[in-house]
Amino acid sequence: MKKSLLVRALCAALCLILLPACALGEQLTLSFIGDCSIGEAIQNRGKADTYTTVLDEKGMDWPFSLVREYLDQDDFTFANLEVVFTERTKHTDKVFPLVGQPKYAQVLLNSGVDAVNTVNNHCFDYYLEGYQDTMQTLDEMNFKHFGSTYLDSKTRKQDVVMTAEVKGVKIGAIGFSIPQDKDLPAMKQRIEQLRADGCDLVIVSLHWGKETKAIPESWQFKYARKVIDLGADVLFGHGPHVLQAVQFYNGGVILYSTGNFTFGTMSSKVDRDTGIFRVTYDLAQDGKPALSMFKLIPCTTTGAGDYRPYELTEQDDRERAFKKLIYTREVTNMQNLPQSFIQTGEVKIENGVPVE
Prior knowledge:
Radius of gyration: 21 Å
Helix content: 10-25%
Number of helices: 8
Strand content: 25-35%
Largest sheet: 11 strands, mixed
Shape: globular
Distance between the termini: 49 Å
């Protein structure tokens, strides 16, 4: 009898060892953070308390030092990189050309971030050559990046699609800046190619929306639905430099704006509330990962002399950030975060829909 029980116990233990991790209720958590500008406006270079002078003093791990533990806890982290890594001096005629010497890209290796979107309204601040310098810098570090850019309306200059495999799940990512309807066929083609290549999850990063506006523009709701209908699982939005709403549609997650995270040129008009947006999937033994939870780790970011984001700990401050993610109007076929999110900062997802 004792031998029989021992055999059963050994068999059970062996089954647990041999079963795929996904069969044991494992989860996959993706994190998304907003604009990361690892540098400063060219006119501020060399001044006291600028981003790079702080890095020279504090070291490359400084910007993410207060949140690194959270970014290490997840399975994969995406960020928007909004700076040009170059030694060039010739730049476009704009108010704030954003730049950092290539050596400062090492910050990314000390951040907990796993991949960056590189296309936005600052990626060509130092023209095409500067953008290519950024690509070369990231490639030399073997740091994952993605983005599809146009220098003009006819000529595609860069088109980088990213894939990564985590916990047996293949993830694909593409990025577009200032998206328009004419970009939808290109998105469709790339999403379909990623699916054909075996991607279980597809992330579409969009740099869009009006700066400093707390509410997305009306056209963005319709556009977001189109992107999800094309096959995206997450729309990762950034650009307005402030937090905006989160919505759910047809099984997908829409992050309209993830705010500023660590930014070398902070305007006084920019809301410093930010956060780590976490999207969690249950991993079934068969089939597509199932969206199961959304969570925000609320943070605020700092300006000149520090530049580090840190978690908000006072409940009133946390609720202030949570509230910014709740859209108060109804949009056709889209689901908003429930009011309970204001207290908890997280919500369970069932069949693609948030539940109280």
